[in-house]
Amino acid sequence: MQEDFLHYIWRYQKFDWSVLRSTAGEPIVVIHPGEPNKHGGPDFLNARIRLGDTLWAGNVELHMRASEWKQHKHDQDTAYDSVVLHVVLEEDQLILRRNGERLPCLELKGRIWPGMRRSYFNLMGDQQHWVACWPQIQEVDETLRTLWLERISVERLAQRVEKVHALLAAHTGDWEAAFFQELARQLGQPANTEPMEQLLRLAPLALLRKKRDSLFQTEAILFGQAGLLEVDWQEDYPGELQREYAFLKKEFQLTPMAAGAWKFLRMRPANFPTLRIAQLARLVFQTDRLFEKALSAMNAQELHNLFELKVSQYWRTHYRFGQVSAPHPKKLGASTVSRLLINVVAPFMFAYGTIQHSQRHTEQAVRLLDDLAPEDNIVLRNWKKGGWVAQNARQSQALLHLKKCYCTASRCLDCAVGHAILQYPESNL
What we know:
Helix 4 crosses helix 13, helix 5 runs antiparallel to helix 13 and helix 13 (about 335-355) packs antiparallel against helix 14. By secondary structure, the protein is of the alpha/beta class. The protein has helices at about 5-10, 70, 115-125, 140-170, 175-185, 195-200, 205-210, 215-225, 235-250, 275-285, 290-295, 300-305, 335-355, 360-370, 380-385, 395-405, 415-425; strands spanning about 30, 35, 45-50, 55-65, 85-90, 105, 320, 325. Among the domains are: about 5-110, no CATH class; about 170-330, no CATH class. The chain has 17 helices and eight strands.
C-alpha cells in the first residue's frame, strides 16, 4: 500500500468508524478531516477533531508508520507543532511532540474495508492494460465521466495559461508576437516545431511587419533567415528571393540559421517546412493583428476564415525549392486549421480572459472547443476501443490530458473515475 491510498482513505473517511479511539485510548470524533495541503507542511490543514472532551482545530499528518515522523524530521520542524492528530497505518513507535507531550495517534490498521483494499490493489497493480481502470471503466456512470471531462478540460486550459505567461514574458507582453510564435510552432508539426521557433526568434513579428505590405519581401526574410536560400538556384523565383534577402540582410543586420535544422525525411509534402514557411508568410501578409481579430471572432467559422489563405504563385506548383509538383492551391487543410484553433487560439483566448479578468473570453475559448470536431490520434483511438468516445474537441483535449496527467502518472486516486471504482468496491465486508 502507498501513502497516497492512506491520504484517500482519510480525505473521504473510507474506514470503519466504530469505536474510534486513539492508540492511547481516547475517544475520537472526526468532525472535519481537513483540506489537502499541496505545499510544504502537514498533509491536511484546518481539521476539526474531538479527542475525549476537547475539540481541537489544527492539522493532520499521515504516515504509513508512525516512525516516519522522526525519519522525516518533523520532530525538528516548528511547522508540525500545529498537528492535532497523527494518522498512521501502523503505530510502530511512540511519537512525542517537541514539548515532550504524546502526539495523539489514530491507527487505521484493521479499519480499512477489505473490499476497498482489494479494489485499490487491483486498480494500482494493473500493468497489463492500457490504463489501470480499463476492465471497469464501462461500469462507471457515463454522466460522471462526462462531468469529469468537463472539469479536466478546464484544468488543461488553465495549465496552458502558464505557457502563455512564459511566452508573453519572452515577448515583453506583446500578445500578437507570442501568439504568432506559437502558431509557427504548431505549423512546424510534427517534426519542425523547434526550427520554427528558432526561425521566429531570428525573424520576429516586429521585423516581418516592416515588410508585410510585400509578400515577396516577407518570404525573402523568412526563407533567408531559415537558411534555405544559400544555394545556386536554377529557377528564377528562389534566385530572386536570394537577391532580395541579400539586400534585406544588410539593411537589418540579419544572421540566418543553419538549413540543416529543417527535416523533410518521411514527411508528407503538405507538411514540408518550405510550404509551411510560405503559408506563414501569407498569414503575415494578409492579416495584421491576427490575435486581435481572433478575439473578435463570433464563432468557429469566423476563426476558420481567418486562416483561409492562398500561397504565392510559385508555391502552387512546388512543395520545396527546385522540385515542381502538380498545380494545387496549397491552402491550410481543414484538419490543420482545426489543430491551430484547438492548440493555439483556444488556449491563448482562455489565457487572455484569465489574465485580463474577462469571463467573456474564457467562456469563448471553452465554447470554441465545444464547437470543434474531436481530434483523431492514437490516444483517442485507444480510448474509443474502451468505449469512451470524444464528442467534440473539448472532450478530446480532456481525454488527452487524462491519459498524460492522470493515467500515465498513476494518479488514479485523484481521478473521478478511479474514485468511483473505489467508491463501490466489490465487498466492504
